[in-house]
Design goal:
146 residues, alpha+beta, four-stranded antiparallel β-sheet, 2 helices, elongated
Length: 146
């Protein structure tokens, strides 16, 4: 019986994936290769998450994730959620920081991260309190974030 889970994601840019992985203590990108899991194999970008028996495998062309945590017994899926939460933040940084925009992050009590991007003229684009790691209602705030 296969334990391998396949899940669609937006994780498709290796440089951004590497930055998102660096946000997680103890995680590391292992490079492209094949992972032999409990009852299947997967080939793609391998990411070792803390405490996971088998690395996460990301198919970069499609963003498909393949992993086997045996319902959490072989790895805490919180680290996968952290990776999926960090990816859009790192993507925003890669787009906005080269333009001189300032990005701030504010961790919220519920585990979300409020991201604010300050653009020219003192205005900010605010990521809001999204219910999921990559959902987003963006709004524009005036000078001072109001």
């Amino acid at each position: 019986m296969s334990h391998t889970v396949k899940r669609q994601s937006q994780l498709v840019d290796r440089a951004i994936i590497e930055k998102a992985v660096s946000r997680i203590d103890g995680a590391k990108v292992l490079g492209v290769g094949t992972v032999k899991m409990y009852s299947s194999s997967a080939t793609g970008l391998r990411v070792q998450l803390p405490g996971w028996k088998y690395p996460l495998v990301i198919e970069e062309a499609t963003g498909e994730l393949k992993f086997d945590t045996y319902k959490g017994q072989w790895g805490d899926e919180k680290y996968l959620q952290d990776l999926q939460q960090g990816y859009p933040i790192e993507l925003a940084k890669s787009i906005h920081e080269p333009q001189g925009h300032k990005i701030t992050e504010l961790p919220l009590e519920n585990g979300d991260i409020r991201v604010t991007i300050k653009v020219g003229g003192g205005y900010a684009v605010d990521g809001g309190d999204s219910p999921g790691p990559s959902a987003g209602g963006y709004g524009v705030a005036g000078p001072g974030g109001e």
